[in-house]
Structure formats: structure tokens, C-alpha cells
Amino acid sequence: MNKKILFYDTTLRDGSQAEGISLSSRDKILIAKRLDQFGIHYIEGGWPGSNPKDMEFFLAVKKAGLKRSKVAAFGSTRRAHVKVKEDAQIKSLLDAGTKVVTVFGKSWNMHVTEVFRTSLKENLLMIYETVAYLKDQKIEVIYDAEHFFDGFKANPEYAIKTLQQAARAGADNLTLCDTNGGTLPHKIRHAILRVKRAVKTPLGIHCHNDSELAVANSIQAVGEGCRLVQGTVNGFGERCGNANLTSIIPNLQIKMGYRCFSQARLKELTSLSHYVADVCNLPPMNNQPFTGRSAFAHKGGVHINAMVKNAKTYEHVRPESVGNYRRYLVSELGGKTNIMIKAQELEMKFQKDSPEAKKILAEIQRLEHEGYQFEAAEASFELMVQKLLGKFKSFFKTEAVSVRTEEIGAGRPRSIADVKIITKDMKYFESAEGDGPVNALDSALRKALVKTYPLINEIRLTDYKVRVVNSEAGTAAKVRVFIEFQDKKKVWTTVGVHENIIEASWKALVEAIEYKLHKG
User: Fold this and answer.
1) Distance from chain centroid for Cα 235
2) Helix (H) or strand (E) holding 405
3) 6-261 and 396-519 in the same fold
């Protein structure tokens, strides 16, 4: 049995239809290059007849130097009662100049009569003539049977007739689409078994995630013989998203033995996932299977104790196999085993039942009771341990800090921060203006420190998050502030907690700078 699976990425079209995603032509080229580097077999670039930006992409991608992936243009069958050669949308597909074209046609009789407002017979002609015409142009044609599973449920005979028309016209692949994302896995199986008796053309699968089953349905379809899997990186897509390729690929390859990509390529999966999220200007989903930051993170003390003895106790695959890594989270739930593991990472040596371990655990429990959370702020944890053990070198002392915001309500508020800092060399007083109080504090602190510590210029603030700890207290509630910094080598996060959001931010900001100076 041939167990080679082909993957068709539609992040640049279906994925860009997700709420909150807007990709420029340059963004699309960047993602296409990364998908090509990974080795995705097909990249759907967009619908050239729908907007100028997609056609711009097809012109630019020819110069992008893709080496592994085939680029596909996407469009519809010809319009009803229009000659295929005279259909402007079909012409735009040819103008895209791709060697692969994917066209969708209606499988559901309700869509034919109520959306296309034409006859079932005309729809069959639209499918046949479009596919045949594109094949005459020596193009590889993938036929997307839109709403196939809903159409099969409503009128199985007609749904299969639409596939037979595409097959008879020479389609290279018939992809069955669960467009509304409402089909259950056993229904996917039933429909595919019926289809396989009716057509011999290779089959593909395209699932949406409206029932949280897009990955399961795609895997089910592969098990029934589909050899082309369509989806998006991170499952991005309209409504609830598309089938997530970053989950489908490792499940098929690691657990089911299908030939997808080399082991070296598979180890790039996590970086691919995060890269696409960054270009889409979306934060990577921490709890995403396989590639999420939390996918192999362990917090509970019982779990951690077992993991130290055998990683298989709480991990279904090795994190390294998909380019991820194991993390032991520091929290009041972790116990002394977790502290020992983190201490080893920090190259500190003391015994599990030592006074040092007990002291650190007690401090973690105290601070987390106040609202701190160290699992997402490992830089703060490291500094805390260094200070408790008397191994932290103080780099500066804060003598006075103030910040004010003026012209609030006028549409152009500005914040000014003043800081008085004492370093090993001398005392500095600096002021800075910023877009907000935290930005102003960051700028003023840097100005005060940079003369003594020039490496401050290497870092930049990349993320700022605020969480309410005890919302029942209303406007007097404590807030937890996370601040993320990075330099050329590392990203680190610190945390501050206080009833005053500026004070909490200042604590996190100071620790972020201290961490950089401590690490060098």
C-alpha cells in the first residue's frame, strides 16, 4: 500500500479569511517561502479573480525561487450559462500562470438551486466543462467538491454525480470538502467508502473545524484512502478555522506510519507554526498540540515526579521530534522536585530536602498566594532564587521614581517619567516622554543606566500583558503584569503584582533589566 501523503496548504487563502488576519502580498511571499522550505507539496496562493492583491502575489511568487512546493491558483467553475472560454474568472486563473489550478464546484443540490440559482443539469455541465477546459491547457487540476458531505447527506446520488463529472473531465484529484465543519468522523468514513466505489480518481480531504473535528475528520479520511490533505498552519481559517496541519502531520507520521516529511523537516514544525503566527500578527497559541509552548509543559508535582523517572508517563511523543522542548513550570503546585529541576537548569547545586529548597518553595507559595505566577515568568523566578541564596549582585538602586500623564481626554495624552538611579559609578536623574506610562518609565530607566551599562542598548520590550488577579475587588483589584524583553540571543519574561498597575509594571520592568545585566 502506498502510504505517501501529499499536503496542500491553504493558509494564504482560507487562512487569511480568519477574523483578525490581513496579509499583504509581502506577508504571503514570506509564508510561501517558509512553507516551501518545510517541503509542503502544494501552496494555494489565493483567488486571482477576486482581488488585485492575490494577482500581485502570483506575479511575485514566480520570482521567489520556490524549490519544493507547487503553487496553486484557486477559483470557481464557470458561471451558469456562460461559455467557459468567455468566463472572466476562468481567464484570471490562467493569467495567474500556475501549473496547478484548484476549482470548486457545488455538490449540494440546495446550493445549486438557491445560491447559483440554476438547474442541477447545468451545474454538472459547469463542472465538466471547466475541468476539461483547464486540462486542455496542460494544467494539473484539483477539483474541490464544496459542501460535499452536506450534499451527500441531502442527495447522495447527485453529490456523487458531481464527482463523476469532474473525474470524467480529467481532474487529477477530487477533494471532498466538509465546508460547514459539521460532519462526524463515522459519517466521513461512510461517504468516502461510497465515493470509492463510484470513482477511481485519487481523493483528497478538506475539513473545517466548526465541530472541533477537522483534524479527526482529516485523519479518518486518510485512513479511508484520501492521499491529499488540505489545511492551514495553526488551523487558521474562517469561523472556527480549518484543519490544523501542524497537528495532522505529526499524527499521521509519528503515530500512523505514513510518509509525510523527513525527520529533519518534522523537527522544523514548531518553528514553522510560530513563524506563520508571527507573520499573521497573532500570538502563538500556547495550548496548541505538538507546537504550543505548553504542549510539553509540566506543572503538577505528581506529574513532574513521574516525568523525572520516565518521560513517557506524561508525554505521548518526544517534544524534540516536532522541534519543541520540555518545560517544568515553577509554581506552588510543583513541589521540591520541580525546584530541583529548575535549580539544575540554573547550574545551582543543593539537595531536594535541603534548607535552600524548603526556603525557595515557601517563598514561591507566599508570592503565588499574593498573585504572582512564575510559570510564565522564568526570569523572575531565576532572580528570586539568586536573591534568596545570596548570589545576586545588585547593579543599581532606585532612589526615586515618578510618572504623570497629561492632557487625558484631549485625544493626545502624553506620559512623562522621572527616575533617580544610583549605579556603581554615580547617581543619575533622567526624564523621558512616552506613548504611555510604562513606555515612559522604560525610556527613562534606560537613559539612566546606559552610560554605566551600554549593553542596555541590545534589548527591546516586545510584549506587555496585564491580568486582574482578584476581579471581585473591582477597581481596587490587584493586577499581574508580564513584561517580555528580548535581545539577539534570548527572550525572557518577568512579572510584577500590585494594586497599582504602574507599581506592578515598574517591578516587572526593573527585574527585566536586572535579568539582562545578570546574564550579560
Assistant:
1) 8
2) strand 396-406
3) no
Closest CA to 192 of 182, 180, 206, 181: 206
Q: 234 and 288 in contact (C-beta within 8 Å)?
A: yes
Would you identify the CATH topology of the domain 6-261? TIM Barrel (3.20.20)
396-519 falls under which CATH superfamily?
A: Alpha-isopropylmalate synthase LeuA, regulatory domain (3.30.160.270)
Cβ neighbours, 10 Å, residue 116: 18
- Alpha-carbon distance of 445 to 441, in angstroms, equals 6
DSSP state of 305: H
* pTM exceeding the 0.90 threshold for the entire prediction: no
Helix, strand, coil percent content, the chain, rounded in steps of 5:
45, 20, 35
Sheet of 479-486, strand order? 460-468, 479-486, 491-498
Residue ranges covered by each domain of the chain: 6-261, 396-519
pLDDT digits (tens, 9 = 90+) for 105-150: 999 999 999 988 999 999 999 999 999 999 999 999 999 999 999 9
Q: What is the pLDDT of residues 308-363, one digit of tens each?
A: 788 888 899 999 999 998 877 665 555 556 666 666 666 666 666 778 777 877 88
